[in-house]
Specification:
alpha/beta; disordered C terminus; single chain; globular
């Protein structure tokens, strides 16, 4: 009994130290928030041009990482700022510059403090980062608009994501050690898969000075009409549906009260202000989501109600036409063609 009590005290002590360390790290990250605010004067300039950058620590494989904020284009064609992380391999750039891989991240949230560039484990979140760095590639990881920079984030809006992806590549070319190469590939999962497909669609017209050499999309969020009709039936689906409704009601002005029960709104607000960085966040969100299992939607299927149906169709209006030659899928995955399973 005595040894058990000692172990319990030691465990509690270590847990307290861990929490204190996480709080310190989180406080350090959130202290960066002024970095993400650009003035009207700072927004003047071409898309992809750097507004500011600062070094980051703990990048893998001897690389140098930068937190950046750069210019981009908003939903109405207005100038905006977008943040992200760019990781550059060690050593001088080779002749012709380094290849660039744009990493499009999966869902992390819909409010500014959920930006991956603010996450404690940002480098661990970038799938394949170490291998890419060791092969001499620069990795440009956009936050997307409204994450880091003032929100709300246009969640699952493909054109918006793609412009941010491409402009992160442009921004990377202005950093030391990158060189003047113009070739890039894009790779992402889930929301990032959607962003990757849209990057493939608009790259040639949006950034003719760049050469897109490959698109890799894992489990892309494409058939949003179907997803909106099915997702709300599971716990995870309710989480994603809540974020979609919250974001689109603010980005598009869609009336959320046409599809959501009034008593569910506080839970939707709480979910929309929680981030997804680790499995612990997912477990926490499942607890937050529980009231939605009793009271959530006021309609059987969101995708049958206007303007939500039209918005879902608009969000996936072009993905189905992406040529197979522009897609790259890992072997053995269930996905067999662009945007379809």
């Amino acid at each position: 009994m005595k040894s058990g009590a000692v172990r319990l005290r030691v465990t509690n002590y270590l847990a307290a130290l861990l929490c204190a360390a996480f709080s310190l790290l989180t406080g350090t990250a959130h202290a960066q928030m002024p970095f993400y605010h650009a003035t009207a004067q700072e927004l003047a300039g071409p898309p992809g041009s750097l507004i500011r950058s600062e070094p980051m620590v703990f990048a893998p494989a001897g690389a140098q990482a930068y937190r950046v904020i750069h210019r981009s284009v908003g939903m109405q064609g207005e100038p905006i700022a977008v943040s992200g992380v760019i990781v550059v391999p060690p050593g001088p750039a080779p002749a012709g510059g380094r290849p660039i891989v744009a990493w499009a991240h999966p869902t992390t949230g819909v409010v500014p403090h959920c930006a991956p560039s603010l996450a404690i484990f940002v480098f661990q979140q970038m799938a394949g980062l170490r291998q890419l760095i060791e092969q001499g590639a620069v990795v440009a990881a956009t936050d997307y608009p409204g994450l880091g920079t003032p929100g709300p984030h246009p969640y699952l809006v493909g054109d918006s994501e793609a412009r941010a992806v491409i402009d992160s590549v442009r921004a990377a070319r202005n950093l030391p050690g990158v060189g003047d190469g113009n070739s890039f590939a894009v790779w992402g999962h889930s929301q990032g898969g959607q962003a990757s497909l849209y990057t493939g669609l608009i790259a040639k017209t949006y950034a003719p000075e760049l050469r897109l050499v490959g698109v890799a999309a894992a489990a892309p969020a494409t058939a949003l009409v179907t997803l909106m009709g099915d997702d709300f039936k599971s716990s995870g689906g309710k989480n994603l549906t809540a974020m979609t409704l919250w974001s689109w009601s603010r980005v598009y002005g869609a009336p959320i009260d046409k599809v959501l029960l009034p008593e569910a709104m506080p839970t939707v607000d709480r979910l929309s202000n929680e981030c997804i960085e680790s499995i612990f966040d997912i477990l926490e969100r499942r607890q937050t989501e529980k009231p939605l299992e009793q009271q959530f939607l006021s309609v059987p299927n969101i995708a049958t109600v206007q303007p939500w149906r039209s918005l879902a169709i608009y969000a996936t209006r072009r993905v189905r036409f992406l040529p197979r030659s522009r897609c790259s899928w890992p072997r053995g995955r269930r996905t067999t063609s662009c945007g379809r399973k």
